[in-house]
Amino acid sequence: LPGLHVFALAFALEVSVGKTNTVMALNNSNVLLPCTFTTCIGFQDLVFTWYFNSTEMIYHGKIKNKASEPFLVGRNPRVEFVGSTTKKDNNISILLKNVDFSDAGKYTCHVRNPKEKNAQHNATIFLTVVQKMVEADNTVTLIIVGVVGGLIGLLILFMLIKRIVLFIIKKTQDGKKECLVSSSGNDNTENGLAGSKAEQKAPPK
């Protein structure tokens, strides 16, 4: 059906910014805004645009085909294209230079592919700008790891002591058994000693 054909084509183009859509950057630093696109049937004269807060265009580029890199149509002076489309992942990432607090907000990577009946798709990144990176407080984690590690250590020590004690007890018991065997195994019949088997013989008739 024609309707299903158009529906399938509309979902052939996909745009992605990776596993997470949040990025944090230091004030006055450069930050990478990642974006890649995929298409099932290839592309021709593909157009991609980066927007800040949905309205402000900060980068606009076109790609003739898979064998060519994008050419610039327009951009913000602080934005640099750092991707590549002749490679497998169709990377259309940009680098935002010297970010400040006013750059915090929503960045949208928008792609339109004329070869797919002008199918369009986009993905969004949220940028946060901070004065300094704050290290996560791992005190509670360290305490938990320390306690668990200590308990495991005590358990191992207890098991080791138990094995040593059991080994000593076994050796002591083995020593006693050897003494009992040697004392009860004396055969005094030949010596004619008291309590020997010789005294237990019946007198001859």
Describe this structure in words.
The structure is a single chain. With 205 residues, the chain is of the alpha+beta class. It has a domain at 14-130: Immunoglobulin-like. Helices cover 27% and strands 31% of the residues. The protein has two helices and eleven strands, in the order αβββββββββββα. It has helices at residues 2-10, 139-184, and strands spanning 13-16, 22-26, 31-33, 36-39, 46-52, 56-63, 71-75, 79-81, 94-96, 105-113, 119-130. It has a six-stranded mixed β-sheet with strand order 2-11-10-5-6-7, with no helix packed on it. Strands 3-9-8 form a three-stranded antiparallel β-sheet, with no helix packed on it. It has a two-stranded antiparallel sheet with strand order 1-4. A hairpin with a 7-residue loop joins strand 6 and strand 7. The radius of gyration is 42 Å and the shape is elongated. GO terms for molecular function: sodium channel regulator activity; transmembrane transporter binding.
Number of strands: 11
Strand fraction equals 25-35%
Would you tell me which CATH topology of the domain at 14-130 applies?
Immunoglobulin-like
Number of helices: 2
What is the CATH architecture term of the domain at 14-130?
Sandwich
Question: What oligomeric arrangement do these chains adopt?
Answer: single chain
Radius of gyration equals 42 Å
User: What's the main sheet like?
Assistant: 6 strands, mixed
CATH superfamily of the domain at 14-130: Immunoglobulins
State the end-to-end distance: 126 Å
Mean pLDDT across all amino acids:
81
Q: CATH first level of the domain at 14-130: which class?
A: Mainly Beta
Q: How are strands sequenced across the largest beta sheet?
A: 2-11-10-5-6-7
Structural class: alpha+beta
Task: State the order of secondary-structure elements, H for helix, E for strand.
Answer: HEEEEEEEEEEEH
Portion of residues within helices: 25-40%
Overall outline: elongated
List segments where confidence is low: pLDDT < 50 over at least 5 consecutive residues. Answer: 1-10, 181-193, 195-199
Main location: membrane
Domain Ig-like: 2-126
Transmembrane segments: 140-161
Subcellular location: Membrane
